[in-house]
Each structure stands twice: as C-alpha cells, then as structure tokens.
Design a protein that fits this description.
mainly beta; 4-stranded antiparallel sheet; 8 strands
Amino acid sequence: TASGYVYVDDTRSIENVEFAINGLRHESVTDLQMLLAPPSGDKILLSANQKINNYTDGCSFMFSNKAEASKYLHNASNGNNINIYNKTDVVNYNSENLLYSFNHLFGHAVTGNWYFYVRDTDPVSTGSIDSWKLIITYEAEE
C-alpha cells in the first residue's frame, strides 16, 4: 500500500469534490485499489480491481460527479472525467465500511488531512503515479 496526504484548513462548506490521477503507470492496473480518506473518516472507494479498456501507460483521469452518466474507469479514455463505479459490496479494506461517492461531504466543512491510498493486490507487479490532485469547490459565502 502506498499513500499520501494533503492538509486542508479551509472552514467553508464544501460544494463539490473532484479527484485527479495524473500519469498512472502499472504492469497490471486491474490489481489496484484506490481510496480517498477525508478527515471525517469515511473512506471513499474510488476504484477497485477495474479493467481499464483504453489503458495506456501514463494515463490520467478525474473522478467527478460532473462526468457523463455512462463514463466510468473501465470505459474511459485518457483525460476523461469519470464517475466512481460502486464496488463496495465486493471490496473490503481493513473491515471498514466504504463509500462510493463524495456526496456526504457536500454542505460541510471538512478540515484536516485528506489521505489517498493505493493498494496493489499483487505484490509482484509494480507501478507509479506521477501526481494526484484533490479539487474542492466551496459554497459561496453570503
């Protein structure tokens, strides 16, 4: 498992969350499980053991509720906005309940460390991610 985090100290209410992966390279992308863990403690299963039909080394994509309704990781092209495909009924991560949407964060201030976890379920294969980005849009202040 690899992880990283970013600290968010903005106390405004969240309007939208998006999460971008840039430059994914892996010998077997179907081995990967990706999670976002906001400070609220509710981990979000972004992707789990999914085939990426249009995969090319160094691909990039963004998990976004603004994606076309039919766009998911398994049918996206490089650079697409995609929806989170619900695999919470088949993936277990440390016996925790996982969510598959950013919706529970909307309308709340969520400050603290936001963690990104990537677990490779096959320790033989290797890979890397050039960078990732958490994009938070806040509600307008009155």
